[in-house]
# Entry
Amino acid sequence: MNIAAFLERAARNSPDRTAVALGAARWATFAELGGRVARLAAALRGRLGLGRGDRVAIVMANAPEYAEALLAPWWAGLAVVPVNAKLHPKEIAWILADSGARAVFVTPDLAAAAACAAREAGTDPELFEAGSAAWRALEAPAIPCERLGRADLAWLFYTSGTTGRPKGAMLTHGNLLAMAEGYFSDVEPLEASRVLLHAAPMSHGSGLYLVPYLVAGAAQAVPESGGFDADEVFALLRAHRGTGMFAAPTIVNRLVERAAGTGPDLSGLETLVYGGGPMYVADLQRALDVMGPRFAQIYGQGESPMTITALAKSVVNDRGHPRWLERIASVGRAQSGVEVAVRGEDGADLPTGAIGEVCVRGDVVMAGYWGNPGATRQALQDGWLRTGDLASFDEEGFLTLRDRSKDLIISGGSNIYPREVEEALLAHPGVAEVSVVGRPDGEWGEAVVAFVVARGAPPSVHSLDAHCLARIARFKRPKEYRFVAALPKNHYGKVLKTELRALL
# Structure
């Protein structure tokens, strides 16, 4: 099943219904969107000569054209590579080179960075700027939607790894359809009258949730700012009824803070799904007090997108339950069609209450890592995805995350792997050794802290910041540097990050 076939169905069955809105105004009906996608797909196959399974990268801020950029390649039988718009050009270059992207869709604000990345990648993909005359001139006579199978590649989700290089999780059309089915059964049912508001990046969770809304024949809405602004979100909630959103806890907290001060009309907000990082119980309680019973939670990874567990609104809102606080501190129960196990180092299932690694099996799990069979074998064992997250089940099947064995830091909903930051800092002439950990942060969830052993006199924070900004994305830069005489290590020379976290 080609996900783009649901656009074909909506264009046929509900041609005049709004498919995409820009701010409060209609940007395209389903008939208009279907026509644009079919013509853009024709250009990808004809003018650009792309063949089935070829990759198209998307280096775009949120824009109404993002829907075209996702759906046209699928319509043509191609795969998309949505790229985090906050990445450094060097990081974008790695993704373009590794994926072998033949074309890149960009927004004007990212055109220069994408062009620089394309040159560095050395693959010479063609760049097309969203909304430009060249973008529209690219269109060709429409072609039929390509018929694909569930195993065909749809989305390459690049997620950072402990090796310091991003890995492309291969998500198939079957994976995305299973994700949509999980949303309907475990988060909420959707009707065609609903609207998905993209205030969070469409390269990640918000864009993935385009799929269940498309399957339901519902609309997408993109803020005119192309990003998150609390007042703009509240204004759009007055314009669009039955609105859903996906947001990292950072965005949720900012909405709550603004709502507490202004008391906006929230009647248009049906559901706010939070995920992408831990949300403190106290913050969730305040969110419920300020914004009402509108919250649901999902837990997933790029390798099993948005699909491992869900904490339904009915559970979040059940304050009278004797274990309510424990429940909302969890990430919920396994989603339908997904097997979740907590296992020890020997691979055996652990009893209730015991802490072990979260392992997942089902149609939602990726096909593997693009061009990386070694990493695939490590992550997928006997049909199970080893997440690297440590958690425990309670007697009711609620899963509570305890730690992340891969040392992942989640800041503002974005994944940061310490190894990437450490490698960047170790290239500084004034850094002899470094170890990076996360500390709790009330606004961002976690903040990056670098423990640095200097080579001679400690370098200035300014020089370390500038060094990082030349190599990695701004959001990965440490928020704090601590200079130490030595890093704590065990007998094998491994840095004891637990001791560093204890210092924080």
Summary: The longest strand covers residues 431-441. The chain has 18 helices and 25 strands.
